[in-house]
Amino acid sequence: MQPLLEVENLTVRFRIMGLVRQLLVATSRPWVEAVASVSFNLAPASTLALVGESGSGKTTLGRALIGLVQPSGGRVRFEGADLPDRSAVAWKRWRRQMAMMFQDPVGSLSPRLTVRALIAEPLAIHGAGPQDLGAEARRLLGLVGLPADIGGRFPHELSGGQARRVGVARALSLNPRLVIADEPTAGLDVSVQGEVLNLMSRLQQELGLAYLLITHNLAMVRHVSDRLAVMYLGRLVETGPTDEIFIRPAHPYTHALLAAQPQPDPDRRRLTVELTGEVPSLRNRPPACEFHTRCPFAQPICREEAPELRDIGPERKARCHFPLASG
Amino acid sequence: MSERSSAILEVKDLSVAYATPRGAVRALAHVDLTVPRGEIVGIVGESGCGKTTLISAVLRLLPGNAAVTGGSILFNGREVLAMNDAELRRLRGGGIAMVFQDPMTALNPVLSIGRLMTDVQFREQRSTPEKQVAAIAMLRRVGIPDAESRLDDYPHQFSGGMRQRIAIAMALLTNPSLLIADEPTTALDVTMEAQIIHLLRALRRDFAGSILFISHNLGLIAELCDRVAVMYAGEVVESGPVGALFHNPGHPYTQALLRCDPARIERRTAELPTIPGEVPNLLVPPTGCVFADRCPDTIERCRTTVPVPVSLGPDHQARCIRIDNAAAA
Predict the structure, then answer these.
(1) Nearest Cα to A266, choosing from B196, B40, B51?
(2) Which long-range CB contacts under 8 A does A114-118 form with residues at least 24 apart?
């Protein structure tokens, strides 16, 4: 089956100094690499979760895929066709195929528009949908399980869960094939989190959507994603089927992330902290294996040679000289 | 440990209402909460359940439109609600210290860490160099590497996890008998979160202080706390030792909350459990049980009778009339 989305060596660089400064300090790298040569595929109607800590580049990657950030290199193909480089006009037709749900459920909605206007906005911009935008907005509200009378309200009159549903309705208004959801449950209470995720998986089945979930909430990822990609300092360090990674993580970083999850069971308190220290700065990437500064299993070779992201089993890859689980 | 005199904080039957243009909002109703000396007590509940109102009341920092409509707050055996301004300053500056959710906004961005950490010791009879030494020792204790050389740095020069450590160090410098931590790890990544939780646990051991830990994350409560109070719609619906509450939850809300936590679901599920319905509108509080509208086992009497706490074991209580029925049957 042809993948819906093919990402090859995607790189995003942000300049951190001007030309003068660059000449003064005589560096050939006046940038940080927020996303460093990331490659993955996403199958239609499936869910890939991109996980990592803040600053790992997951949001930047999501924004680069949908053309909100200019990639510095690499290739992105959607249904086999290359995505345009920078032209906003050329992007327009792709934006109907891919939609984005932004992080802050209330903050990503204009405070001056009613819910009805917010949902109809993408339709109006693209000149899509039926003549009667009001009726279409009501249909979309119904689709995401909101009562029609909520259409006249403003974002500040909504609860977090309701605002998130409006975000889902907006993302779905143009019938996309792919939805990039950036932290869809952040800031929501656990009971509401479940509602939003159930809604998203119901819509996935009904409409054949593919999701790229960007999140740091591993407990939720386990239940909703088919595949997992773990990012560290802008690079993928492990990819594979979610269930297998949860059972046997291969990269020490994945292992540590899973171990750092609080266990809601007082009898299983962890008395040690596996991962000490902090994520290094993108300006000073550690040499060789970039995780060796925090890795509990680091060997001499880890400080000398950078590991490749290589196959460690069917469908599984890890960027480690000594993967914890193989084959 | 359950003797009355051993408690550092005792909130009894506390009720708080906010005056709003649309009427009085019942923010807290008959809240009981005890923090025994040397223990970590957790408060868990979803947004809007009154966690923040409760700690604001304890510190007497409620906004102007709030009124305490009943109950008492005893800190170290003294009534907080009757304290005058001087006593309140002593309470806030020495008795109770607070660590806030967002470590960036909790630290003054235009003062250096060294200045912040010496200023906070203004009550101590020490010279400035001595205060600096104390500040360095405390920064080391909370795990700031290279503490001496970082006193001149400003908050923005530290990462989120380091800032929260600094906020904790500042709180501990006042030598409080009670530390209130309001969602101290919400703004942090999981690996940082695990480190902060580990730190709080170590500090409790070293300083023998009491901690009131507010969170909506059941996992953190289970990791850290000795006792836990579950709040819903302004009431403490269940409280007890953490083991009893997690293994044998009595109140349907606690049960639902535990069921919803995706971290507790071992097998992958397509349909995650939820709590259907909405929190009650506290402008018109329900006449009976606050959870009746969303409870799967509601009976007619739930809507008319206000449930009183029913004992489920040593120190373990829940406000649910059905428990009484089950025990009687």
Answers:
(1) B40
(2) A114/A151, A114/A152, A114/A153, A114/A154, A115/A141, A115/A146, A115/A150, A115/A151, A115/A152, A115/A153, A115/A154, A115/A155, A115/A158, A115/A166, A116/A151, A116/A152, A118/A155, A118/A166, A118/A170
At B5 the pLDDT is 57
Q: Residues B163-205: pLDDT tens digits?
A: 999 999 999 998 899 999 998 988 788 888 888 898 898 888 8
Distance of CA A293 to the CA centre of its chain: 25
Asked if A175 has any chain B CB less than 8 Å from its own CB, the reply is no
Mean pLDDT along residues B92-102: 88
Cα distance between residue B14 and residue A232, in whole Å: 48
Give pLDDT, residue B138.
Answer: 92
Across the interface, whether the CB atoms of A198 and B220 are under 8 A apart is answered no
How many angstroms separate the CA atoms of A204 and A158, rounded?
24
Nearest chain B CA: its distance from A173 CA (Å)? 24
Q: In this predicted structure, what is the pLDDT of residue A326?
A: 55
pLDDT of res. B325: 58
* Chain B contact probe: residue of A104, A190, A202, A227 with most B CBs at under 10 A: A190
Residue pair B272/A198 in contact by the 8 Å Cβ criterion: yes
If interface means Cβ-Cβ distance under 8 Å, which residues of chain B face chain A? Answer: 46-47, 159-162, 189-195, 197-198, 216-223, 242-243, 246-247, 256-258, 260-265, 268-275, 278
Retrieve residue A204's tokens.
């996935």
Q: Which has more confidence, A223 or B5?
A: A223
Q: What is the pLDDT of residue A103?
A: 85
| Best B189, B204, B205, B216 residue to mutate vs chain A (most A CBs within 10 Å) | B189
**Among the partner residues A193, A223, A257, nearest to B268 by beta-carbon distance:** A223
User: What residues of chain B lie within 8 A of the CB of A242, using their CB?
Assistant: 268
- Give the distance from residue B276's alpha carbon to the nearest chain A alpha carbon, in angstroms: 8
Give the C-alpha separation, B183 to A144, whole Å.
Answer: 31
User: Which percentage of chain A shows pLDDT scores above 90?
Assistant: 57
- Cβ separation of A269 and B269 shorter than 8 Å? no
Token digits of residue A95: 């934006």
Task: Tell whether A231 lies on the interface with B, counting CB pairs under 8 A.
Answer: no
Kindly identify which residue of chain A lies nearest to residue B255, measuring between CA atoms.
A191
A157 close to B (CB below 8 A): no
Task: Indicate if the pLDDT at residue A306 is higher than 90.
Answer: yes
Is this complex scored with an ipTM above 0.85?
Answer: no
Mean of pLDDT values over B294-320: 92
The fraction of chain A above a pLDDT of 70, given in percent, is 98
Does the pLDDT of residue A214 top 90, yes or no?
yes
Work out the number of other CB atoms within 10 angstroms of the CB of residue B64.
Answer: 7
